[in-house]
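Worked example 3 (structure in, sequence out).
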């Protein structure tokens, strides 16, 4: 699987629109054996499945499942259906995510903000991967890929998105640990790619301003970079390049100096002040 996903079984969460749909389109274009779509938006999911089916002209099997990955109990039930009706995926893209922003932490609500954000962004990828990774490991002669879409917010604290940052930091820590565990256990057919992009112009972060050296990214560019890294089994994708620079500076500079130079000077700490999201 170093060049395409031709012949592979691909599963994508948050696949009804946005970048999730773009990953699905890429898989269909490359001749995947099947593309399985998970999303909670039944109407949008149905439209996407129909359009992808027409585009594939029967060459790729398109299956869709209405599931809210924030409902952790629904993950196991849906995964059982996928294994029975489609088979275990060779490629898993944990793309689904939510954000609650433009509030200080003490203004958030545990039930409406903290719990769903942690469930969708951090716990759901773990639960979903746990369902399918045994099958990936067992099929030792077929390359498998797991892609976890995290965020630069998980590497760099930012006001007005404390819970979101926490959820993505948890995802990054788990994802890279999983990569190391697979390598240590010599399950070299399964590769994990962790993705930490800055703001992307998908509508999810409408109103957020790109800091200096980190302009708002175009989704097509991100999808292309992630896809190529996934095929190659690359461990980490940081977009843009300044995300890696910020991470390095955070480890070198004293905290207060970092706050002044990067947080305030580059505008990182003010980037969410006008955030509205999808409304």
């Amino acid at each position: 699987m170093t060049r395409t996903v031709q012949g592979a079984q691909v599963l994508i969460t948050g696949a009804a629109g946005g970048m999730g749909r773009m990953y699905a389109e890429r898989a269909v274009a490359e001749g995947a054996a099947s593309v399985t779509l998970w999303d909670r938006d039944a109407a949008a999911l149905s439209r996407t499945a129909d359009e992808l089916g027409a585009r594939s002209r029967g060459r790729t099997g398109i299956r869709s499942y209405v599931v809210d990955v924030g409902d952790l109990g629904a993950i196991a039930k849906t995964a059982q259906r996928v294994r029975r009706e489609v088979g275990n995926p060779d490629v898993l893209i944990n793309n689904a995510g939510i954000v609650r922003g433009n509030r200080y932490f003490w203004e958030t609500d545990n039930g409406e903000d903290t719990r769903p954000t942690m469930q969708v962004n951090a716990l759901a990828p773990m639960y979903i991967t746990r369902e399918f990774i045994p099958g990936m490991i067992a099929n030792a002669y077929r390359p498998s890929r797991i892609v976890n879409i995290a965020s630069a917010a998980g590497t760099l604290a930012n006001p007005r998105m404390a819970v979101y940052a926490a959820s993505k930091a948890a995802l990054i820590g788990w994802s890279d640990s999983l990569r190391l565990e697979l390598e240590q256990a010599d399950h070299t057919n399964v590769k994990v790619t962790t993705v930490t992009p800055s703001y992307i112009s998908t509508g999810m972060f409408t109103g957020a301003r790109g800091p200096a050296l980190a302009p708002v990214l175009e989704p097509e560019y991100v999808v292309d970079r992630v896809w190529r890294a996934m095929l190659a089994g690359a461990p980490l994708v940081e977009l843009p390049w300044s995300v890696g620079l910020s991470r390095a500076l955070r480890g070198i500079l004293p905290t207060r100096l970092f706050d002044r130079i990067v947080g305030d000077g580059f505008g990182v700490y003010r980037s969410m002040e006008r955030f509205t999201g999808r409304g």
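Notes: Helices lie at 18-29, 42-56, 72-85, 110-138, 162-184, 219-232, 241-252, 255-265. The chain has a mean pLDDT of 94.
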